[in-house]
Homoserine O-acetyltransferase
Amino acid sequence: MPLKITTETDLIRLLSNSPLQVEMSFMKIKSHTSKNTPVEHMQAFYTDFEEMRDEKYDGMIVTGAPVEQFDFEEVSYWDEVTEIFDWARTHVTSTLYICWAAQAGLYHHYGIPKYPLEKKMFGIFEHRALEPLHAIFRGFDDCFYVPHSRHTELRREDILKNPELTLLSESKEAGVYMVMARGGREFFVTGHSEYSPLTLDSEYQRDLERGLEIELPRNYYLDDDPEKGPVVRWRAHANLLFSNWLNYFVYQETPFNINDIQ
């Protein structure tokens, strides 16, 4: 997550919207120093993986990173992050991988490749659940909306070829959205359901200021006019997604003695 404080706030807001009491810890890796987050913040709130590796956790969220246009092995912290992916399988009840992390997790664990897009997938897109009775979709409408902001994609045919993976949701425009593995111990989500109302606007304005080629985020601004602000249509889905994950795949699945996770 390039803007850690913003992402923390977005995720905490969603995780807090539950009757379950949630206590959070933030993990960092030694082989990477954040460029956009004050050192004081990292020192105050984050703990190195090495200091956490002997603990076990109900759930874990692995966020995205602005490295998706690199090959996975070219990422400077690839070895350390894949060590964490492997560790999570025996130390965490359920892991939720978001955006680049979803692509990285699927590649590392299941050999699923990513593909470059001709132009950035950027905006709010309609999705459907392929297994609408699945617990992760409890309370969902027949169609729901998700923000996307990425330069690469996964392809459904690669997911469907692997019997260990279940394609749970996709979009006609945005493609693969949610994949499940290990009976819900791993979820891979390619979009950014956690985004606040103004996140896409901030990304759009940032890229304009940098002189980058960027199209208007699709289906986002009222009348496609940035001056009129966004039409927010994904927050209900986001709250259900995180509360369902916490309830059905974290809280109800974690053994009474957390050390029994394996």
Observations:
- The chain has one domain: 4-255.
- The first strand starts at residue 26 and ends at 28.
- The beta strands are 26-28, 46-48, 57-62, 92-98, 115-129, 143-153, 165-171, 175-181, 186-189.
